[in-house]
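Hi V.,

Quick status before I head out on leave. The structure for the redesign project is tokenized and pasted below; the design run finished overnight.
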């Protein structure tokens, strides 16, 4: 499955480290940019405190790598690649990932025959529909001590419309794998970003 990771040029060393090691950063859910992340609704009378604590503990053990199924969204480039100055990495993902479910409200925790309808991963793969343009998928690590891991093979890298010559040269000089490089430009007709394969020079 081909997915994409948007990265800012302000963390150029992280980009280079990812390209060299093919290991991506996994964050705690509390550090993600959605202030509604990880929250859920439930009826107080339906659950013991221990059950809620168990779910919270399960969430806290998880680490998340956020990915997208698209590379052409203008807002994604603006929000996650420093206003189109960064890059978007293409990955042939080889581990299990979960597609985000976009809903009008945060999820409800319910119980039926002593079983819960939501696991910690289920809660962390729900987002309100205002985020649906991100077309997000998530990879998880169930280990609170690990922050970097391989998720697949890097197959390409797209430079943002405003990526500088210096950023491009720095990345190109540190490439160790044979990956495809692309420049990008704005498709004004369709209001999105399009890429063009780099043949020789940047």
């Amino acid at each position: 499955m081909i997915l994409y990771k948007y990265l800012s040029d302000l963390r150029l060393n992280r980009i280079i480290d990812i390209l060299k090691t093919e290991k991506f950063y996994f964050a705690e859910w509390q550090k993600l940019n959605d202030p509604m992340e990880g929250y859920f609704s439930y009826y107080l009378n339906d659950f013991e405190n221990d059950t809620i604590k168990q779910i919270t503990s399960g969430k806290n053990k998880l680490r998340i790598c956020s990915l997208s199924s698209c590379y052409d969204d203008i807002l994604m480039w603006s929000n996650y690649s420093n206003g189109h100055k960064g890059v978007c990495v293409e990955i042939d993902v080889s581990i299990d990932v979960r597609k985000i479910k976009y809903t009008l409200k945060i999820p409800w925790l319910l119980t039926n025959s002593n079983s819960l309808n939501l696991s910690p991963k289920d809660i962390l793969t729900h987002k309100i529909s205002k985020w649906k343009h991100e077309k997000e998928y998530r990879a998880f690590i169930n280990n609170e001590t690990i922050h970097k891991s391989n998720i697949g093979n890097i197959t390409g890298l797209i430079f943002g419309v405003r990526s500088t010559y210096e950023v491009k040269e720095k990345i190109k000089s540190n490439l160790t794998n044979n990956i495809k490089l692309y420049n990008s430009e704005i498709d004004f007709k369709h209001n999105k970003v399009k890429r063009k394969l780099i043949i020789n020079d940047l």
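Above is the designed sequence. Helices lie at 12-21, 49-61, 74-80, 120-123, 165-173.

G. will cover questions while I'm gone.

Best,
W.
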